[in-house]
Amino acid sequence: MSVPPALTINGQRYEVGDVSPTTRLASFLHDHQLLGTHTTCYKGACGACIVVAAIPDPSNGVRRTMTINSCLVPVLACVGWELTTIEGLGNKYDGYHVIEERLTQHAGSQCGYCTPGMVMSMYGLSQSKDEWSAEDVEHQLDGTMCRCTGYRPILEAFKSLTPEDIEDAHKTRCLTTGKACSGCCSEKTKQGQTVAGQSLVRSLQLKDAAWHHPTSLQELLDTLAGFPEETKYTLIRGNTAQALYGCETYTEFIYTGDVPELSAVRLSTEELVFGGSVSITRLMDQLSFAAQTIEGYSYASQLVETWKYLGNTAVRNLGSWAGNLATKVNHHDFTSDIFVGLVAASAAITTVGPDGSTSIHTPEELLEKDLVAERRVILQLSFPPHGDNVFVRTIKVRPRTTTCLADVSAGFTLRVDAAAAHTVVDTPVIVFGGINPSFNRATATAKALTGKSLEDETVLQEALSVLASEVDPDSPPGGASPEYRQALTQTLLYKMVLEILGDSAGSAVVSGGSDLKRPVSSGQQTFPENTEAWPIGKPVTKIEAPIQCSGGEAEFITKIPARPGELFGFFITSTESNARLVSIDTTAALAVPGVVAVVTAEDIPGQNNLLAFAGEVVPGFKQPVFASERVEYYGQPIGLLVATNRGAAYAGRAAVKVTYEDQQPPVLTIEEALAKPLPMSQFPPVVVGDVSAGFAASSHIIEGAMRRGGQFHYHMETQVTVVNPTDNGFDVHSASQWLSETQRAISQVLDIPDNQVHVSAKRLGGGFGGKIDQCNIVSTATAVAAYKTRRPVRVQLDLADNMTIVGGREPYLCTYKAGVGFDDAGVLQAVQVFLTADSGYSGVDVSCPSAVDALPSCYSCPNWELHPQFILTNTPVTTWCRSPGTVEGVTFMENIMEHVAAELGVDPLAVRQKNLLPDGGMRRISKQVLKIRSRMAGQDLLDLPDEMKVPRNLISDMISQIMTSADVEQRKADVAQSNLDNRWKKRGLSVMPMLWPYSVPPVYPFSVMVAVNARDGSVSISHGGAEMGQGINTKVAQVAAYELGIPMDLISFVPSNVHSNPNSSVTGGSLGSDVCSYCVGEACKRIRSRLDTHQGQAGLVDPSWRDLVYSAFSAGVDISERYANGADEVKSYAVFGVACTEVELDVLTGQFIVLRSDILEDAGRSLSPLVDIGQVEGGFVMGQGLLTTEKVAFDSTTGKRLTDSVWTYHPPMALDIPADLRVSLLQDAPNPLGVQSSKVTSEPPLCLSFSVVMALRQAVTSARQDAGTTGWFQMDAPLTTERLQQLCLVAAGRLTLS
């Protein structure tokens, strides 16, 4: 008897119910209120959706436990599986799991949105292995992304776990019995059965398509044979291909994961055989075993080492090797690491047709087959043995360590007679991926090597020349350039030759044959204890950490339950970047069942402008909710479609027809925009002294330029808003860093009073400035839809829409001229700079005034002339992003100092020390910044001083400290010697100082409320700041506990809202935590003062807090307090920092490792050391991404953003951070101007990541010197692998054997 298809989740049986073949597990979990599993990318690349699955192997009945991406796998594929989600581990009621406890103890969460995925990744490792190493932990997290922490505390937390810890931990709690789960409540799964021991439903006819679940090969073939000729069908195992190529429309889906013949593995000395449904992970495990135990297969370890960087662990767990290969068959442009490895190994693939006939193919022959038309199934793969004289090497050059496609992948197989001068005996195999859709094997190059000695220099040069002639890379939009990819084919061939030759090659070049070896990461953290002020300064973990690390208990807006009648909204966006909008035809869309309405600019009752206070930054600029006359960038919202379900919304959006005219080429770069007149409302320059006189007094005039690209915020929680019409207005839950701005923006769009818009937010899943005002793209559109339909509306952007619709950090161009004195010591006499910022299509969030004010950093110069300017392009509005403007000013100044040192031929650090601002030196006040921030707060500043005194420049002492603690001199000598000894591996070591201007406007209010409960003395706090991972609540709680004299565990927080905390300013610029801590401290002082007065009046002797509070309440004393800071209460000051970074660069590929970073940060007397260290590490790693891997690209013809997923846009992941990360907070440096003597830490450390660029410059400089080129060179950021390799001047003629 058949039963409805079901799966087990946390010990409880769930029937699949009414789903479609494309319904993913993540959606199923959310529909069943298992909301702890988050989603961000829907591409299997960020790890937020990770769950653990125990999946039966149909070939032997054994369940294999693994982590999987719930955003990829169809829920129908999960029938019969046993799943564990974050809810199945621990919680605050039943106790936390040891993994959750350890992550909490190590301060491993900040915003908390990625945290359930992190926990489940580690849980999956603990359930899939009996023991594990630190390296296993690091690779387990290769597909789980965290934008906040910098990964170090997460890695350390998980490395501290042992199998014994897990065995003793709280077990998965069965939701049926309430006891520790020991497996499925019913019988173990047998072949062809469900968890209840009854037959699987083999075929399901669903509304739009059929799902087939065969349990034998014959059943699979019969199903295929029964389809009519024109049937659109697909075979599914892990469904991982849709991460790259999306979902096509099919009428028949066949799941292959329960076919025993496709899951079989056979290992022997004759061949290694793997069925087509064997996962890539299992393939790698079995190949590793064979390499160690079966003669003839040692080469397999090379394949495994390369495939460790194929996708990520969860993708490899779910995806099969045959699925990867089938994707290559269907999409010849796909750079398949599997395909390259199989060609190199001379593997054979067997396919089977509907009639049972089999054929054997090489991987290349398979590419010529139309498997779908012939209805053939990839049955199995076989590897042959290779002798000891056969060399097999595979290499993958990639833009980031993991979770990315290769720029170029290569495979080489050569039979070599080492005794005969390394002569190539047979025709070698040379295969490349990533060249063009039709090129795979370099046959002419292989012929050129056949029978030749690899020790012969002329043979190598001939082969390189032949290779250059037969490789013709294409130019895919957004991909690595043809020049780089062609160069890589030569350098990778050269690497292979060097590895074969070993010591037969010259000592200077031999290291080029090996890949960079990243050590297992480590870290150190030191900070002053300051016990006299505890709980201020006490190293406590974030107060939200336990619920962030546990069973999905931390509530985000995405977890707000849907209200009856709630609609889902999806943006209709432009497909032109510079055109007149003629019409929007919604007829077909409104006919789609479930589609309720489409709202456009015509439906806005008030102003079509999503900026309120924020619109005052640059007068004259606005930002429409919906484009109405002209579209200004590809992806600009022109409407919002709302429907009863997501499927209807997607279908409806696809049916909308938009007509354009007057299409113009898009302006996409600063250089293109500078060819036109500058926009209105430019800012005045900052002028100190007379630069003309300074240049006249200079012996050296140095001129140059540097470009730096933009950066996407990549907050794990994408933009999201829920709007519910009520009897007194609209309740709005918005992921906003500035609730007052969101309130005002909605009210002006709807043309209603502010008091009818009730905005609140408990916490944000990251922000980094991206949710200051650009969140209102979503919040205002959602409000218009709720206004029109009179129904609740929810809009959450998927990652691709978020990256297309919403802008990021501004790209910049810096051109400069610097003059230095006649003593050749590099003392600055004059600096003239033009800083040009790309503001997107409207100049509403412009940071260039901040940049010029921050540019002097910690340096002194008598003459400055600094010009801020912005231009407009046909791209999304660029906006505030962590340390906006200040990171540009600080880092461009460091580039100038590097240039000065290079021109003079002196040590860059010596030049910096010669130019340090003296104690008592004057620094320009960031007047333009303060005016902007004050206007954002609804104020206008008229009288501000021009300068402020820096009483003490701490940089000199901090440099001395880090020189000792980081052993800089010895390491510099080691780097220099290494660079002399090695042509193709270069190192660099840098020391970078920083002065970061913390600028607080005289009027910048935050409203807070501190309420003491009379009965038990517990304290509730509500403040106008946004908790988004930066630890604002923890710092506020520590200050409150200190001022009230109570334990922190008596304090809790009420979500921020516009009525309890009205008119609060933006949480940005590091101001939120600082000012809110100040305001709460002042409120608590007033409460404490009244309590102390009452205690004396009542004659109470040493009362408990609880008794004191109740006594005061009973006497009519007000035990609550509201406070908002007044004019000039919170002060501006300078924040200092120094970093020392060492890198290693593979000159042949451009790949690099950050070996070590030491950071010394001035935090004053830290309010919360663990929070501050987390901010330092997270900011530094985010800055490293900005300057190295995070390239933003647009299609030059259409203006479409090409880097719109984690597969194409590359923030750092766990294996990209400094391998050795050491952070210290400066000792004995209380800040007399700071809140409780502290300094801010959220943004300044990001600037110190430029030390990575400085170290890479040293490495590249050494490579260029080897190439015979000396002197300064422009080094634009981000420093991608391509840019680095090309800067190193690697030419084929230099690829020699000696």
UniProtKB/TrEMBL annotation:
[2Fe-2S] cluster 1 binds at residues 41, 46, 49, 71. It comes from Chionoecetes opilio (Atlantic snow crab). It is found in: Peroxisome. GO terms for cellular component: peroxisome. It comes from the Eukaryota. GO terms for molecular function: 2 iron, 2 sulfur cluster binding; FAD binding; iron ion binding; oxidoreductase activity. Belongs to the xanthine dehydrogenase family. Its cofactor is FAD; [2Fe-2S] cluster; Mo-molybdopterin. The active site is at residue 1243. FAD binds at residues 320-324, 333, 396. SUPFAM superfamilies: 2Fe-2S ferredoxin-like, CO dehydrogenase flavoprotein C-terminal domain-like, CO dehydrogenase ISP C-domain like, CO dehydrogenase molybdoprotein N-domain-like, FAD-binding/transporter-associated domain-like, Molybdenum cofactor-binding domain. Binds 2 [2Fe-2S] clusters. Coiled coil: none annotated. The keyword Metal-binding applies. Pfam families: Ald_Xan_dh_C, CO_deh_flav_C, FAD_binding_5, Fer2, Fer2_2, MoCoBD_1, MoCoBD_2. Keywords: 2Fe-2S, FAD, Flavoprotein, Iron, Iron-sulfur, Metal-binding, Molybdenum, Oxidoreductase, Peroxisome. [2Fe-2S] cluster 2 binds at residues 111, 114, 146, 148. Mo-molybdopterin binds at residues 737, 768, 882, 1069. The gene is Xdh_0. Residues 204-388 form the FAD-binding PCMH-type domain. SMART domains: Ald_Xan_dh_C (SM01008), CO_deh_flav_C (SM01092). This is Xanthine dehydrogenase.
